[in-house]
Amino acid sequence: MPFMPRSENRRSSCSVYPTMWRTCSLFCAWTLLFLTEVCAQSQRRPIFTCGGNITGESGVIGSQGYPGVYPPNTKCVWRITVPEGRVVVLSFRFIDLENDNLCRYDYVDVYSGHVSGQRLGRFCGTFKPGALVSTGNKMLLQMVSDANTAGSGFLAVFSAAHPHERGDQYCGGRLDKPSGTFKTPNWPEKDYPAGVTCSWHIVAPKNQIIEVKFEKFDVERDNYCRYDHVSIFNGAEINDAKRIGKYCGDSPPAPVFSEGNQLLIQFLSDLSLTADGFIGHYKFRPKKFPTTTIPPTTTTQPVTTRPILITGTVITAVIRGGSMYATISIINVYKEGSLAIQQAGKTMSTKIIILCKKCPFIRRGLNYIFMGQVDEEGRGKIAPHHFVMAFKTKNQKGLNVLKNKQC
């Protein structure tokens, strides 16, 4: 082994240590940056779970896993509590749930209070309601999903406000005097704002009913009142089984009479077109007052079981209780009846129920001709005496002939 002077030995070891030190420093700096970025990301993007109790002046609520796809077959409940003497104001920033004109499958319910509270609304699809305001310092959100179509869920923010802190975006409330007036925000100076939800809960003594009349009425027109509209319900909550009517357009609805001593009036405007709005009046009546003038479900399109003939592509198809429930992307409509049609941009879709087990089995992604009737909820109904068959371009000419003929 050759002899190495001590000075050279020291010099060699000194040349090695700086290299090790630089490598270690770089590794530590990279690790620190990585951990800092991870922490920053966790702070920027909260993790949303299924339900919970939330207390404070303000906060954010999101569906489980938002902004990812929410899981199927879940029921999540969030209970919000703000300080005593304040009310909860909730605003949806984003919503994407399975779309259905009655929100029967995936939906979010919002209630004023935690137990047996008044339902302020049920929401699905991509429609963002306006600000929802509780009557007290508690609010409850409940999201339900079924086994099928899912989306990104929802994101909402809440804050505490003083009970009478009403601006353009806040309206509605409890009405319990013998007579009174309700109107859209900004009436009559200018159009109502976009993105508004107003709920008026009218309560009469138990031996009386309620009469409602609209003096002026101008709400964005649509054949099915899918966008801006007024809905009136018997009772104290939004329940489609108890809905008296759904109204839009520029013709005042006929006078409405409640069945009992409570009535709920809800006005919704989406984020696009607006109009003048409305002013309505209510008064209490003796219970023996006749109630035979209740109007149809909509002022613009009465619900009847008229024939339909459409062509479309199957988006979803699920069997429930021996019947098939399908969502159809519409190719063409030849006979519309009173079919409820949803529209998102240029895409139109509708719901079809095939009642007979012997009808042709439909498959997702394929095109069909559907001929049947419309049920009381605006869905297409295909019974054993109706038909479904595969649609091909060569069928187009024959269908155009049927368009103007009686079924």
UniProtKB/TrEMBL annotation:
InterPro entries: CUB_dom, Netrin_module_non-TIMP, NTR_PCOLCE, Sperma_CUB_dom_sf, TIMP-like_OB-fold. Disulfide bonds join C171-C198. Its main location: secreted. Residues 50-161, 171-285 form the CUB domain. Keywords: Disulfide bond, Glycoprotein, Repeat, Secreted, Signal. Residues 1-40 form the signal peptide. It is found in: Secreted. SMART domains: C345C (SM00643), CUB (SM00042). It comes from the Eukaryota. GO terms for molecular function: collagen binding; peptidase activator activity. GO terms for cellular component: extracellular region. Pfam families: CUB, NTR. The keyword Mitochondrion does not apply. PANTHER family: OVOCHYMASE-RELATED (PTHR24251), PROCOLLAGEN C-ENDOPEPTIDASE ENHANCER 2 (PTHR24251:SF31). This is CUB domain-containing protein.
